[in-house]
Known about the structure:
This protein is 39% helix and 25% strand.
Amino acid sequence: MMNKVGEIEFKKIRRISPSQFYSMKNCRYKSLLAEAMNKKPLLPISPNAYYGTVLHKLLELISKGEIINENDFNKTFEEQIGLMEQKLLEQGFDFFVPLQKKVKDFMMKKILLKEHLHNFSGQSQSLTRVNYIAEKWYESKDKTIGGKIDLVIEEGNKIEIFDFKTGAITQDYLDDDGEVYSDVKEEYKDQLKLYAYIYYENTGKFPTKLSLVDLAKQKFAVPFSQKECYTVYLESKNLLNTVNSCIDTGIFKANPTESNCKFCLYRPACSFYLNQIEICSTFKDVSGFLVNTLKFQNGNISAYIESGRKRLTVSNLPEEMFDELNESHTKKLYFFNLKRETKDGLYTATKATMIYE
Ligand code: SF4
């Protein structure tokens, strides 16, 4: 089915969550589009990301002590997978269902997650002087920064903030001598420092340790100082003001680079990005005027579009799109989530392909 973005009504953003800060820093416009769309994505994300949301929910329930044994775990896991699949069906993303068949290492991740069960439930029963605070909302006094912290463990003067990640926590960087080294992703460092600051604003105390934990229970410390946490807080606050001031002035800026836009789910609504794909062919989205549509014997459809001086072919489109595409000749169309073939100008539709006009 052909999709339309419609009129975009920008709204001011009241608050930034620590997990959103880095993304807003990279492209302010993305945050404004997300707010305007009431955070409803215009494109599907990968099945791994949907599964990641389920895994994170389970981790949250384990750390809260709401899942304490294997039976609870299995029952809740099935329930949460069912809820997510239902949501995917409602959004028309039936091609990601069942998730078990679409996600790589589905069972392995489930097994790794189950291992966390023994971690938190065991500790919370044996150490009564330790305060476990899971999934609690914290916000700055001016309410500009707020979010739920996965877990805080308070033990006397020792306070540790944990954030759970279901994907990779580190990435490779190059040092000044050109040597590769691995370090915690910058976005996670900023996120944890913001958690530390909002925890401080709520309790009057800074944590003594910031940690990230992955599915395999590997723990990564994030070094920090109180000054750094305050600096990131000020930076976020200023960024929020700058982003909101765009709505008053009507002057918007975006940063359409491959790394920023690749996972942006608001690409169909971003005029900066849509201009970019017309001049740059490194993206997996294309646009142009539809000049012809052909149906092959196997039922597959190919659409031929003119993009500037180039002729592009999008093949493997579903049969049920034929009539609608035929009625759209001469219209400008935008195809998202394609596979780029080795031959120049040739693209193949995937299950996640969506067309906007
Ligand atoms: S598509 Fe790219 S430039 Fe546009 S809002 Fe998203 S990240 Fe920003």
